[in-house]
UniProtKB/TrEMBL annotation, chain A:
This is SufE family protein. PANTHER family: SUFE-LIKE PROTEIN 2, CHLOROPLASTIC (PTHR43597:SF5), SULFUR ACCEPTOR PROTEIN CSDE (PTHR43597). It comes from the Bacteria. Residues 12-131 form the Fe-S metabolism associated domain. Signal peptide: none annotated. InterPro entries: Fe-S_metab-assoc_dom. Belongs to the SufE family. Gene3D superfamilies: 3.90.1010.10. It comes from Pseudomonas pudica.
UniProtKB/TrEMBL annotation, chain B:
Residues 23-389 form the Aminotransferase class V domain. Gene3D superfamilies: Aspartate Aminotransferase, domain 1 (3.90.1150.10), Type I PLP-dependent aspartate aminotransferase-like (Major domain) (3.40.640.10). It comes from the Bacteria. GO terms for molecular function: cysteine desulfurase activity; pyridoxal phosphate binding. It holds the Pfam family Aminotran_5. This is cysteine desulfurase. It comes from Pseudomonas plecoglossicida.
């Protein structure tokens, strides 16, 4: 399966990123590119629980394809969310359900950020996405 | 100046963690274990495990003897008058739940339970749920600006309807010792039973439960360099007599018929099922090890490292320390920086500290915070550990700012 353009860019950037400092800088840059959420989208229903930070995931389907928006009050987590969205944006439910997102973050060298421990929200966001993909 | 820990080499995991470039500063969550404990576990499992208080055979007798010797050691550690005042549970949380269920019969609707605003969930939720079951009033004692229970207000709030006072000895978030003598004396005078959550306090200094004058004292083995899965409930003899049996099964029973049963008194009557035998024996070995250390040197080491930690935090711009920590730990937030971001970058640099609400959500909310970073010290930490933490903190902040 071919990668979306932005995902390919991300992969190139992170593959070259050596060391924790550069990875962190890249994460912050990608986080800054996230489309901001309206205050009206920061609802309880859109909140992803199970994170120590505030995380929102807005999901809608347009003609069968998923459109996601996401944000967090934590900066590095915004970067992780941005990297997630470039991979899943515009997929159909079957494609989303069949996607190995752990593998995606492993390719980026960020697999440790998927730890199920609660200090990081990414794990919970992936669970929410998997639920969405299987329900519709 | 470098301040080494003379006990560091007694904890093999510290060197192992260091080889993985990890600096462990999360001992208030759980501690690394001394070699003496590893040896005791290996000896027990390597020489014949057996269930306790049941079997007539030799392995059973040996296990029971070792298990009961640990009870004596815990009693000695706390200066309890009698080993029968020591109940082994599966953790501090289960000890506090035992109390909340075992004392339930003493409450009538409208009675009060007093806890403080800084309680760990383990010493809040069992009482909160008891209050909901029995239509009681849960009274929350407020804190002063330093992070200690406000005595003036507490003495007003603890009154003749207070049936139980349950408070922490040392806060797991603020690192403050609580004014127990005045609180306990006042509660006792009002006819209330007193419960002290010693989960953090027991790790720092020696505490004498008779001198403390509490009815119950609870701690957990794994925070005191022992194995997890073991908690300790000390009770004054008259207080233990008021406890109703809670969990049923195993050797807690005296006589069982199909339709009825009678139960043993403390301690065995409150140790339903097979207890964590190896863990209890391991805790005994840990206490032997701790008792062999120079208590004064230990206290001096911990105090000096704690001062170093506070100084370093205060020296940095924008750092806000929560409360006025007196021992063991410090929690902080940094102006304009999300604690999850700092935690992320500390983790990237191999610094193991805790970020979040520290199992005290209402306290953090009172302080107007979503979370905080907590650095906590064990007797194996040295000044290099703190130096590495501060360097990582500076690097992380530089990046984020």
């Amino acid at each position: 399966m071919s990668l979306p353009d932005q995902a390919r860019q991300a992969l190139e950037a992170f593959e070259q990123g050596k060391g924790w400092e550069q990875r962190a800088r890249l994460l912050m840059q990608w986080g800054d590119r996230l489309e901001p959420l309206d205050e009206t989208e920061k609802t309880e229903a859109n909140r992803v629980h199970g994170c120590e930070s505030l995380v929102w995931l807005v999901a809608e389907q347009v003609e069968g394809l998923w459109r996601f928006k996401a944000s967090s009050d934590a900066r590095l987590l915004r970067g992780l969310l941005a990297l997630l969205l470039v991979r899943v944006q515009g997929l159909a439910s079957e494609e989303l359900a069949g996607l190995d997102l752990r593998e995606w973050f492993t390719q980026l060298g960020l697999e440790r950020q998927l730890s199920p421990s609660r200090s990081n929200g990414l794990h919970a966001v992936l669970q929410r996405m998997a639920e969405l993909a299987s329900n519709r | 100046m470098f301040q080494p820990s003379p006990w560091r080499a007694d904890f093999p995991a510290i060197a192992a963690l260091q080889r993985q470039h990890q600096t462990y500063l999360d001992s208030a969550a759980t501690t690394q274990k001394p070699q003496a404990l590893l040896d005791a576990l290996s000896h027990y499992y390597g020489h014949g495990a057996a269930n306790v208080h049941r079997a007539q055979h030799l392995p059973g007798a040996l296990a029971t003897q070792a298990f009961e010797t640990s009870r004596d050691k815990v009693a000695a550690w706390l200066n309890a008058a009698d080993s029968r005042q020591i109940i082994f549970t599966h953790g501090a949380t289960s000890a506090l739940n035992l109390l909340a269920y075992g004392l339930e019969h003493r409450f009538e609707a409208g009675d009060e339970i007093a806890v403080s605003a800084l309680e760990h969930h383990a010493n809040l939720l069992p009482w909160q749920q008891l209050a909901r079951r029995r239509n009681l009033r849960l009274v929350v004692l407020p804190l002063d600006a330093d992070g200690r229970i406000d005595l003036d207000q507490a003495l007003q709030l603890i009154g003749p309807r207070t049936r139980v006072l349950a408070v922490s000895q040392l806060s797991n978030v603020l690192g403050t010792w609580q004014p127990l003598p005045a609180l306990l004396a006042h509660a006792r005078a009002q006819g209330a039973l007193t419960v002290v959550d010693g989960a953090q306090g027991v790790v720092h200094g020696r505490h004498d439960v008779q001198q403390l004058g509490c009815d119950f004292y609870v701690f957990s083995s794994h925070k005191l360099y022992g194995p997890e899965g073991v908690g300790v409930l000390y009770g004054r003899s008259q207080a233990l007599e008021r406890l109703h049996h809670w969990q049923f099964g195993g050797e807690m029973v005296q006589l069982a018929e199909y339709q009825s049963a009678s139960f043993r008194p403390a301690p065995l009557g409150f140790e339903a099922g097979t207890p964590p035998i190896a863990g209890v024996i391991g805790l005994g070995a840990t206490l032997d090890y701790l008792a062999s250390l120079d208590a004064q040197a230990l206290e001096a080491h911990e105090t000096s490292l704690h001062q170093h930690l506070l100084r370093g935090l205060r020296d940095r711009d924008g750092v806000r320390i929560l409360g006025k920590p007196q021992a063991a730990l410090a929690s902080f937030v940094i102006e304009g920086v999300h604690n999850a971001d700092i935690a992320h970058l500390l983790t990237e640099q191999g610094i193991a500290v805790r970020a979040g609400h520290h199992c005290a959500m209402p306290l953090l909310r009172d302080l107007g915070l979503e979370g905080a970073i907590r650095v906590s010290l064990g007797l194996y930490n040295d000044s290099d550990d703190l130096q590495r933490f501060f360097e990582a903190l500076d690097q992380g902040l530089e990046l984020l700012r």
